[in-house]
Specification:
The longest helix has 16 residues. The strands form 2 sheets. Strands 3-2-1-7-8-9 form a 6-stranded parallel sheet, sandwiched between helices. A 3-stranded antiparallel sheet has the order 5-4-6, with helices on one face. The termini are close together. It is 29% helix and 18% strand. Helix 5 runs parallel beside helix 8. The protein has 233 residues and is of the alpha/beta class.
């Protein structure tokens, strides 16, 4: 029986693909105030601004490709039972070939009803040829189409799913996250005693428990860890 690996990824996972993080010195929150584009209040105040902001992000996202880190995470499936739990809203893990991806903060390439975000009848998958939403476009229930994104202050529907997965994991790999954004940062506390935890990030991260950090970027760090895990298998 294959060992179960959960890979928890954050914004640093996609930096090498050319996507900016939100929180770094030159991140997106410096250009666009979070209260205006990533909160329910911001949406209510100016849905056109919010719609256009996520249209811009989609245009950028369709222009990038998975990096080696994404590809190596997908390659792990040849040796292990792997689930990716990502804080990222891009679809680079799926593009790289990962078959089990849980999105905590929503999916950039989907839009939904603003009346009932999780009503599957009104969740629409966008494509590279159809990734722009005209402000004012309505969902099937008559409400404005909004990004299928978990805004700040909203509940994170998949957090309990992720916690169950981490609890069952034989290995936890954390890539490109500073472990400061909750509730995702709290997932590390669901790891069973004795389960190895590897953290890949070029900056020192305080994880609050016994974690082995590989202080490298996503691709280089995953190459080191991939070689190690597959040799130990």
């Amino acid at each position: 029986m294959k060992k179960r690996i959960v890979v928890l990824t954050g914004a640093g996972m996609s930096v090498e693909s050319g996507l900016k993080t939100f929180r770094d010195a030159d991140g997106l929150w410096e250009e666009y105030p979070v209260a205006k584009v990533a909160t329910h209040e911001g949406w209510e105040a100016d849905p056109e601004l919010v719609t256009n902001f996520y249209n811009m992000l989609r245009r950028k996202c369709w222009g990038v490709k998975p990096n080696e880190g994404h590809r190596l995470v997908a390659e792990l499936e040849k040796h292990f039972d792997v689930t990716v739990v990502t804080q990222n809203v891009d679809n680079l893990h799926e593009q790289a070939g990962s078959s089990h991806v849980v999105h905590l903060h929503g999916e950039l390439m989907k839009v939904c009803s603003s009346r009932d975000v999780d009503d599957p009848r009104y969740i629409r998958q966008l494509t590279p040829d159809d990734c722009q939403i005209e402000p004012g476009t309505r969902a099937g229930d008559g409400s404005l189409l909004r990004p299928y994104i978990v805004f700040f202050g909203e509940a994170v529907p998949n957090i309990s799913v992720a916690a169950d997965l981490v609890q069952q994991a034989d290995i936890l790999i954390i890539i490109g996250t500073s472990l400061v954004v909750y509730p995702a940062a709290g997932l590390i506390h669901y790891v069973r005693p004795g389960v190895p935890v590897y953290l890949i990030d070029p900056s020192p991260v305080s994880a609050g428990r016994n974690v082995e950090q590989i202080q490298k970027g996503a691709s280089e760090g995953m190459r080191i860890l991939y070689d190690r895990l597959t040799k130990e298998e």
